[in-house]
Amino acid sequence: MKQRVLSGMRPTGSLHLGHYHGALKNWVRLQDEYECFYFVADLHALTTHYEEREVIEKTVYDMVIDWIAAGLDPDRSTIFIQSRLPEHAELFTLLAMGTPLGWLERVPTYKDQMDKLKDRDLATYGFLGYPLLQAADILIYKANFVPVGEDQSSHVELTREVARRFNSLYGRSPKFESLVAAALAKLSKDDQRYFEKQRKAYGETGDAAAAGKAEALLRRAAEGTAGWTDEDGELLSGHFKGSGKTILVEPQALHTEVRKLPGLDGAKMSKSYGNAVLMRDTPEEVTRKVKHMTTDPARVRRTDPGNPEKCPVWDFHKIYSDDATRDWVVKGCTTAGIGCLECKQPVIDGIVREQQPWRERAEPYLTDPKRVHWIVEVGTERARTVARRTMKDVREAMGLGY
Ligand code: TRP
Ligand code: SF4
Fold this sequence. Notes:
Blueprint: E1 4-9, H1 17-30, E2 35-40, H2 42-49, H3 54-70, E3 77-81, H4 86-98, H5 101-105, H6 108-116, H7 125-128, H8 130-140, E4 145-147, H9 153-170, H10 176-185, H11 189-205, H12 208-224, H13 230-241, E5 252-254, H14 283-291, H15 312-320, H16 323-334, H17 340-367, H18 370-397
Parallel strand pairs: 1-2, 2-3, 4-5
Helix pairs in contact: 3-17, 4-8, 4-18, 8-9, 10-13, 11-12, 12-13, 14-17, 15-17
């Protein structure tokens, strides 16, 4: 049984190379090892773009096409649209009841973004709730891992706190103890003893290794134990942590090392700053944009030596060039042996080469958009099956089972 990965992206504009190298490339890689759920976070886009929703509508399917172009495989990954599953909004509402206001006000991105996006009015209830909606996204699929940038760590941390609080508030039904005993009885005598031993160790010292061993045992049990159900796993996992049944699973952030690609002017790459190379830019556009890129300001004339560390083109070489080319850049730049246009050519070639398979993979979907609608349709229904099951548990746990 594979562990589950979930991540989302806001449809607020065309995808660029920063999205690809910062996130998407990693999403593609994770498909080999995990069961992956990837979704278009259109509700999240609305929290900031509620006055200009046209861009969201325009971007949704284009974004999915770019995902597929980059290598997401709809047969292996579940691809869907957040707003098509009202369960996200429902869980958000239910979690909101017991979430202290301070938890949300203290999330660092809250004040940061309010300051950064000064041209928008973000003093809204929806924007304050952004991280809680994200928690709902993650918890509804019981995701184990969430690949996100460092800036999103606090959101995953909040998600863990929300799950913990939910489980301790609602995970202890009156029948809890007897259900635990029945689940334990399905394990072999040796496994029962082993599990209880790890539980003791964890309870006394918070021993993380013990938690790992118990989790491994439960995963093994899920594969080969007669009469075992997912609920047995949830009960024992809650029993282990002393929290009651694990209705919501605490996820972990997955910060895989990604190499940052700055924009054409050295600032963060963003379409709204006009410094982005888009995944769909034609070779001509790529050439024009890179040729106009900012370089080390010390190189005013061709004869002035420069320093690659002060030049955003160098960050591109780190991604697109081999060692030999990079040596050539360092030598040529610091001795004024090469000109900046010359230096940029291998970057242009590298980007165009990288884009080629994207263009080929995207082509059938661009000519026949129904194909991408269908992929999203299938993904949405697959996601719905999981979301419904979680919501049934959540409603019952909160006493809404009538
Ligand atoms: N907040 C994320 C971002 O801005 C997008 C997002 C929404 C997300 N819901 C999520 C990411 C759930 C991971 C999991 O990038
Ligand atoms: Fe940048 Fe290359 Fe010009 Fe040096 S030679 S300043 S690294 S573009």
